[in-house]
Write a structure and sequence with these properties.
Blueprint: H1 3-7, H2 29-48, H3 57-70, H4 84-97, H5 101-126, H6 129-141, H7 143-148, H8 155-173, H9 178-198, H10 205-216, H11 220-248, H12 254-264, H13 279-288, H14 294-297, H15 306-315, H16 319-336, H17 360-379, H18 389-399, H19 407-410, H20 413-426, E1 436-438, H21 440-446, H22 452-455, E2 458-460, H23 477-480, E3 491-494, H24 496-499, H25 514-523, E4 525-532, E5 538-540, E6 553-557, H26 577-587, E7 591-592
Parallel strand pairs: 1-2, 1-3
Antiparallel strand pairs: 3-6, 4-5, 4-6, 5-7
Length: 595
């Protein structure tokens, strides 16, 4: 029996308020209105409140894209450099819009809008417009999804490709011809490959596809054929990925090698006997309860319903169980599967709501379906779609999270340093012929945030004892490496800790060369000491506490002039560089730099 004949026995899907899809193929007016409002809201909120450049993971994707564009070989074995579905869109964006933060972030911004549309399409295909639009509204306004939409982080891409994967699989199971089914199922497997290369944990979405195949088909030979086509799609992607990295990194298995290398450096969370001393139970309790703390999870109040909704979906039969399997598998995989055995079995050492963000898609679809059926059952009314603005408004209200609740992500130390560096440069009159020295990772993280004319003048200085990881971050960073020149010939831009001969925790041990740095302690002028001050702006700091601030940068060199008129500060010749920096800072006049 042909699969198309088997499929013809299934009832029509996508009933809306009791009206089957067959008699309501055109999009109703209320759905048009809801979709238009949703897209306007999605686009506007992201444009008005962008997260922007954070100078951490996004710096890695930017560096990999630069190496592809310049034909340099990717050498750093790190999983950020192995995410082809992140890197190639950034390559295309930089080629079109130029090398800047906007071009690096744009692909994720577009992916977030595409994901919202894909969720609508998936909900419409499975149940109807109401479920699809409500689920897409929840996804759009979810705090972590919203703030990640304007960064170069892979979580939104993972949501997009996982959604497309499940949608293609569902359409394949309901295709009218065998050829169409084959193409759609292979495409679904290919989309899974794109999702995995965005975020490895999205492999959990295959649990939902497997469950869907088992539910939608009854003949074993058809199930085997579908799974074979699904696997073929994944294999085709892996082949394409291998060909790409054979060119970009001269290593066909570069993604595998990069992931293994990255996980080998995962720090231990607990001693080997953590089960005996209660640490393991504490970890399990904390991770099971993460959604009950809206500010910690980054999902807002909506996330509180995650475990109840997913649990109920697993108990239900049909398509909800497949979606529930996708959501639950994602949560369990990220929260509890060991990734390092260095000190005994350890769960993933860092766990935030963004790590399981792709689970928000099946969760929102299940929540929308449960809400729809519950309201119809309680109200005995099939015209629920007339009041679409009620659940949509509730979703927006429940997603609202105070800015303080997301500071751990949005207000990252590296982002502050990049902003401070840009402000210090833009508000100081510099000799345009002199180089500006920075440490390797300040260059790696912050160069794209600086004006183009400044980028060409950046030089890298590093202590000989520093690890060599930084030599592989960008294709040209070695060519920027020079001996640190004296203050009369150059400028030095460093964080307070680096200026004192230390290494920032996020610098991976890279510090300035101590021998050359000493001449800056005795002979340089403080041209700018810029530090963040909450949400109110950026200031030139006037007290010694500024030199310990996470968002600070100090610009040193010869005096050329100022964009404003702050008091000058001659660095004192002190035996202790920390006392010297403190004395200098106490003399510095506070200066509002314009924000």
């Amino acid at each position: 029996m042909d699969h198309a004949i088997v499929m013809s026995n299934f009832t029509e899907v996508g009933a809306i308020g009791g009206v089957h899809r067959g008699s309501a193929r055109l999009m109703p007016v209320w759905a048009h209105t809801w979709l238009a409002a949703l897209l306007v809201f999605t686009v506007a909120v992201r444009a008005l409140d962008p997260t922007g450049w954070l100078g951490s993971d996004d710096a890695a994707y930017h560096s990999a894209a630069e190496q592809v564009l310049t034909g340099s070989t990717i050498e750093r074995l790190h999983h950020h450099y192995s995410r082809m579905s992140m890197i190639l869109p950034i390559v295309a964006s930089i080629r079109i819009f130029g090398n800047g933060p906007f071009a690096v972030i744009l692909p994720t911004y577009l992916a977030s809008i595409a994901c919202v549309v894909a969720v609508v399409a998936l909900g419409r295909a499975i149940w109807g417009w109401w479920e699809g639009l409500l689920a897409a509204t929840v996804v759009s306004v979810l705090p972590y999804f919203r703030i990640l939409s304007t960064t170069a982080y892979p979580d939104v891409h993972a949501c997009l490709w996982s959604t497309i994967e499940f949608l293609l699989a569902y359409l394949a199971l309901h295709a009218s011809t065998r050829n169409r089914r084959n193409v759609l199922m292979i495409s679904s497997g290919f989309a899974l490959g794109l999702a995995i290369t965005s975020k490895e944990f999205t492999i959990a979405s295959s649990a939902g596809v497997f469950m869907l195949i088992l539910r939608e088909t009854t003949l074993n030979r058809i199930r085997v054929a579908l799974l074979g086509q699904y696997a073929l799609g994944v294999a085709m992607f892996l082949l394409l990925e291998g060909i790409f990295y054979s060119y970009a990194a001269h290593d066909f298995l570069f993604p595998l090698h990069a992931v293994l290398k990255s996980q080998a450096g995962v720090p231990g969370m607990a001693p080997p006997n953590m089960a005996a001393n209660g640490a393991l139970l504490s970890i399990i309790r904390d991770r099971l309860s993460i959604f009950f703390y809206p500010l910690t999870s980054g999902w807002g109040w909506i996330g509180i319903a995650f475990l109840p909704v997913v649990g109920l979906a697993i108990l239900r039969k049909g398509k909800m169980r497949a979606l529930g399997a996708w959501a639950l598998a994602t949560f369990v995989l990220v929260a509890f599967v060991p990734v390092s055995f260095k000190d005994g079995a350890q769960p993933y050492p860092v766990f935030h709501g963004r790590h399981i963000l792709s689970a928000c898609v099946p969760f929102s679809l299940c929540a929308a379906r449960i809400l729809n059926r519950s309201c119809v059952a309680l109200l005995q009314d099939s015209t629920l779609h007339k009041f679409w603005f009620v659940p949509a408004s509730a979703a927006v209200a429940m997603s609202l999270t105070p800015a303080s609740g997301l500071k751990k992500f949005r207000d990252r130390q590296t982002a502050h340093v990049c902003e401070a560096a840009n402000m210090a440069i833009s508000h100081t009159v510099l000799d345009k012929t002199s180089p500006i020295f920075v440490t390797p990772s300040v260059y790696w993280r912050c160069r794209v945030a600086l004006p183009e004319e400044v980028q060409s003048r950046l030089r890298v200085a590093a202590d000989e004892s520093s690890p060599n990881w930084w030599r592989q971050t960008t294709g040209e960073i070695n060519s920027r490496l020079e001996k640190l020149l004296p203050p009369s010939q150059a400028y030095l831009m460093a964080t307070p800790k680096e200026l004192l001969g230390e290494a920032e925790a996020w610098e991976y041990g890279v510090r300035l060369p101590m021998k050359e740095l000493k001449m800056w302690w005795w002979n340089a002028h403080v041209l700018a000491d810029v530090v963040s001050k909450g949400d109110s702006g950026w200031w030139a700091h006037a007290s010694s506490s500024g030199f310990d601030h996470h968002g600070a940068i100090v610009l040193l060199g010869k005096r050329m002039g100022w964009a404003s008129d702050p008091a000058e500060c001659e660095m004192q010749q002190q035996s202790s560089p920390r006392k010297q920096a403190s004395n200098c800072a106490q003399q510095n006049q506070r200066l509002n730099l314009g924000y």
